[in-house]
Specification:
Helix 4 (about 60-75) packs across helix 6 (about 105-120), helix 5 (about 95-100) crosses helix 7 (about 120-135) and helix 6 runs antiparallel to helix 7. This protein is about 50% helix and about 5% strand. The chain has helices spanning about 5-10, 30-35, 40-45, 60-75, 95-100, 105-120, 120-135, 140-145, 155-165; strands at about 15-20, 25-30. A two-stranded antiparallel ribbon has the order 1-2. A hairpin with a 5-residue loop joins strand 1 (about 15-20) and strand 2 (about 25-30). By secondary structure, the chain is mainly alpha-helical. The protein has 9 helices and 2 strands, in the order αββαααααααα. The protein is elongated and about 65 Å long. The protein has a single domain (about 5-135), classed as Potassium Channel Kv1.1, Chain A (2-Layer Sandwich). InterPro entries: SKP1-like_dim_sf, SKP1/BTB/POZ_sf.
């Protein structure tokens, strides 16, 4: 079996930086810590023989790439993520969760789309844990508030909605 992490280390040393052109025309340099977290970027560098020009990121804004770069810096010295290994739930004081708390809803939505597109399972898992932390201990009205949903239903509308969804 090919060890992608070892192959990446030899192909893409930790001191190397790649400059990407983003959707908004900005150029952002990222290093090994971002590439090793993304299956898409890793495969692009290892198998597509791409050196510096990765057009994939032109659909992602510079701000979102900056967020990804900062989040990946938290994992710089951690072993590669393995989807087969059950990971520990992060504590509320985890720096990644703290960082996510400072993002707006719109920033989180764009970040989530970029994480999905770039296939970054460790970051995807953290965003799920973050969403769970937002929902913890909330009743129906609290959940609607967290997700910015309408919360002024009449009793009849509530009953119709419950019946419609089989609750």
């Amino acid at each position: 079996m090919l060890d992608l992490a070892a192959e990446l280390r030899s192909t893409f040393p930790s001191h190397r930086r790649i400059v990407f052109r983003c959707r908004d025309g900005r150029y952002i340099a990222v290093g090994n810590e971002v590439v090793k977290e993304s299956s898409v970027l890793m495969n692009t560098f290892l198998f597509a023989m791409v050196d510096d020009d990765v057009p994939l990121l032109q659909i992602i804004s510079g701000d979102t790439i900056e967020h990804i770069r900062k989040l990946c810096a938290f994992f710089k010295y951690k072993p590669p993520f393995d989807r087969r290994v059950k990971s520990q739930r992060p504590s509320a004081s985890d720096p990644v969760l703290q960082y996510l708390r400072n993002l707006s809803k719109e920033q989180l939505e764009e970040l989530n789309g970029a994480i999905d597109f770039l296939d970054m399972p460790r970051l995807a898992e953290y965003t799920l844990y973050f969403a769970l932390s937002l929902m913890k201990g909330k009743d129906l009205h609290g959940l609607r508030t967290v997700f910015g949903l309408r919360d002024d239903y009449t009793d009849l509308e509530e009953l119709e909605d419950l019946a419609k969804h089989g609750v």
